[in-house]
Amino acid sequence: MYPHYYGYFDPTYILVIIGAVLSLLASALVNSTFRKYSRVRSLSGMTGAQAAAKILNRAGIYDVSIEHINGNLTDHYDPRAKVLRLSDSVYGGTSVASIGVAAHECGHAIQHQNSYVPLKLRTAIFPVANFGSKLAWPLIIIGVLLSRTPTLIYAGIILFFFAVLFQIVTLPVEFNASSRAVKILDESGILYGDEVNITKKVLGAAALTYVAGAAASILQLLRLLYLFGGRNRD
């Protein structure tokens, strides 16, 4: 039922390595891009928090609060609490990069207000995906240890599938939020001229991290299906 290894080497690890390399490259790119443009002060002189407040007001959103959160690029919008949380370098930062990231998170708040379907789907999937990401591997490992019990292994794979599905659904949500951010920053006059192009570079690099994460998860899922997909390989 399970494939042989070649001299104790599992060839399917190549898929894991490819996924890990993609994730590392994407992470390095977004960090280097943000650092580069975090040194470019915006002409407006606004902080990320101030820009976020202006964007939300412009969109007619008055029930979303803006909070500071510790960490580097830990920015996110919490739709359940209706809170926009901005990290150290974004909340008080006056750079073009800081404003771009803040605007991106505002894009999620606007999606929430407009009942953007992919966001609603992602929110609906999240509880199962979160549960699956925590329990999938323990089930698979226990299934293998207990004489490779198929039921536990397949249950783990199914749960892992929902975690992968969540990452796939996340892609249009993130791309749309960035698109909204660039448009708002351009039309509102918060950023001027080439500053908008810089924002596109920052948000484009950030988007690649989601693409790489989804690709890595898909490769891992393919590996699991290959290893435990029910083929007979004696």
List the helices and strands and how they pair.
Blueprint: H1 13-37, H2 48-58, E1 65-68, E2 76-78, E3 83-86, H3 88-91, H4 96-113, H5 117-145, H6 150-188, H7 194-228
Parallel strand pairs: 1-3
Antiparallel strand pairs: 2-3
Helix pairs in contact: 1-7, 2-4, 4-6, 4-7, 5-6, 6-7
Transmembrane segments: 12-34, 124-146, 152-173, 207-228
Pfam family, one: Zn_peptidase_2
InterPro entries: Zn_peptidase_2
Characterize this entry briefly:
69% of the residues lie in helices and 5% in strands. The protein has helices at 13-37, 48-58, 88-91, 96-113, 117-145, 150-188, 194-228, and strands at residues 65-68, 76-78, 83-86. It is elongated.
> How much β-strand is present in the residues?
under 5%
What is the radius of gyration computed over CA atoms, rounded to a whole number of angstroms? 21 Å
Q: Tell me the domain tally.
A: 1
Order of H and E elements: HHEEEHHHHH
Please tell me about this protein's structure.
By secondary structure, this protein is mainly α. It has one domain (13-228). Helix content is 69%, strand content 5%. The protein has seven helices and three strands; from the N terminus they run H-H-E-E-E-H-H-H-H-H. It has helices at 13-37, 48-58, 88-91, 96-113, 117-145, 150-188, 194-228; strands spanning 65-68, 76-78, 83-86. The protein has a three-stranded mixed beta sheet. Helix 4 (96-113) crosses helix 7. It is elongated. The mean pLDDT is 90.
Keywords:
mainly alpha, 234 residues, transmembrane, three-stranded mixed β-sheet, 7 helices, membrane, 3 strands, elongated
